[in-house]
Write a structure and sequence with these properties.
mainly alpha, 464 residues, 54% helix, 3-stranded mixed β-sheet, binds zinc ion, Hect, E3 ligase catalytic domain fold, 4 domains, 3-stranded antiparallel β-sheet
């Protein structure tokens, strides 16, 4: 409008005419309309109405004001009607704002236009949440790297996805099927759209994010030094850092080194190849014999059956828990209705919200507990392939997979001594168990002949 006014001002010798309806549509309210009108008068532009002649008299001005005010009223009424329609649609469980990543809108019979999972994008979001919940991703930075590898999310000029974009995706209750519209007082309403992840997975991901420092993971953990942060100095126990350094011939060489103050090994570099070869040798040694693997399989199957039997008891308990929580919620709602002090109301509301969270979790477990996500065979195959040879996964060279191997195989970081090499690593339970068997004669025995061993499985002891 400013541009138009200055354009008009720049041409004092010409007569311009503005259509009243255009002006009415442009001005937000009657007051603004009359202000624009005065500005237009100042540059001698005439305002014409197609079906009414405004006179340049106080009466004419009055009529124009009324007409502008009527326009404003209509606009406000329309707005109110649209909002009311939207509110009632949202209250019925339909999300209707811009679709978020992983969802798109589609016409669904009996529902009209509604949110539906958006193919591959939905899968990417699901993987991110499940990875966080399972501990495969530990920070937003790790999810960000994953998104950068697989997704087409918008990037900045450095080709990176912004932290806020990733964090927003990881904090959206919509993916767990819940709708929130704070301005309309709608909080965690159960939507009709298909959730991408269960409420349990979503909540786990949230506590993962809350519990961890959200600082970006060190940028220098790179493909070049996959063991950085995992190998400790054998002298002082501090983490070894890594660097490339230039030799006299100008060639770059990779090193791990200790940077701790006061350490006798401070700044004494260890060739990367020495550290990594020693580590890879250790990892390669973690290969149980085939006989032990089939024993493992038998133990898994045993544990699986016990769990399946337990599952029924668990379902009954969860169902009971959910109905108890509902009773508590109802009671609190009754009291909330009678409460008249704002502080009491807030306290009740917080309490109800907490109970609803617990109830959603219980219902979620109930729903997902009854039908396992994968078949017994699939689960076995995956676990056994990993147990059979973690080295193979390491050898893919994929940084994310390599970190997963470090987390799943080793209980804690491993020390490397400049003189004696790698110290014995503490492995996680599956490898401990397999390792113990490898040491004893049991590994040689046919698995069917050592039935008593299976009774060592902790799940056996749980009440069935
Ligand atoms: Zn040191």
């Amino acid at each position: 409008m400013v541009a138009l006014l200055s354009f008009l001002k720049a041409q004092p010798d010409k007569q311009f005419c503005v259509i009243f309806d255009d002006l009415k549509r442009f001005a937000r309210d009657a007051e603004f309309h009359m202000k624009l009108r005065r500005e237009l008068n100042a540059v001698r532009a005439k305002v014409e109405c197609l079906n009414f002649k405004f006179e340049d008299t106080p009466e004419g001005e009055f009529i124009e004001t009324i007409m502008a005010a009527q326009g404003e009223l209509e606009r406000k009424q329309n707005r109110r009607q649209v909002i009311q329609k939207m509110q009632s649609r949202v209250s019925a469980g339909y999300y209707l704002f811009a679709p978020t990543y992983g969802y798109t809108y589609e016409k669904v019979d009996g529902h009209g236009k509604m949110l539906v999972p958006d193919g591959e994008k939905a899968e990417i979001v699901r993987t991110a949440y499940e990875g966080l919940a399972a501990g495969r991703f530990r920070t937003i930075a790790e999810v960000k790297r994953y998104f950068e590898e697989v997704s087409d999310l918008p990037r900045n000029k450095h080709g990176e996805i912004r932290f806020t974009t990733v964090s927003e995706i990881l904090r959206r209750p919509l993916y767990a099927g819940l709708i929130n519209v704070p301005t309309w007082g709608i909080k965690n309403l159960l939507g009709r759209h298909e959730p991408l992840v269960s409420y349990e997975v979503w909540s786990k991901a949230q506590s993962m994010l809350d519990g961890k420092a959200l600082a970006p993971a060190r940028r220098d953990i790179s493909e070049d030094f996959p063991l950085r942060g995992f190998i400790l100095c054998g002298d002082c126990g501090g983490q070894l850092t890594a660097c490339w350094s230039k030799s006299r011939s100008g060639k770059m060489h990779p090193y791990y080194l200790c940077a701790q103050r006061g350490c006798p090994s401070k700044r004494k570099s260890i060739r990367r190849a020495d550290v990594e070869e020693a580590f890879e040798e250790e990892l390669q040694s973690l290969r149980p014999r085939t006989a032990i693997l089939s024993l493992c399989k038998a133990m898994f199957r045993d544990a699986w059956d016990v769990r399946a039997r337990d599952a029924q008891n668990v379902s009954a308990r969860l169902r009971q828990e959910a109905s108890k929580l509902q009773i508590k919620i109802d009671r609190l709602v009754d009291r909330l209705v009678e409460a008249d002090t704002p502080s009491v109301v807030t306290a009740y509301e917080a309490c109800i919200e907490r109970l609803q969270h617990d109830k959603r979790l219980a219902e979620d477990r109930l729903k997902n507990g009854s039908n396992p996500a994968t078949s017994l065979e699939d689960t076995f195959e995956l676990a056994l392939r990993f147990l059979a040879n973690p080295w193979k996964i390491w050898d893919t060279g994929h940084l994310g997979l390599r970190r997963t191997v470090l987390r799943m195989v080793f209980l804690e970081p491993v020390s490397y001594c400049r003189k004696t090499g790698l110290r014995t690593a503490k492995t996680t339970l599956p490898f401990n168990v397999i390792g113990d068997f490898s040491d004893t004669k049991c590994g040689m025995v046919d698995p069917s002949g050592i039935e008593p061993l299976t009774s060592c499985m902790p799940c056996r002891r749980s009440p069935s």
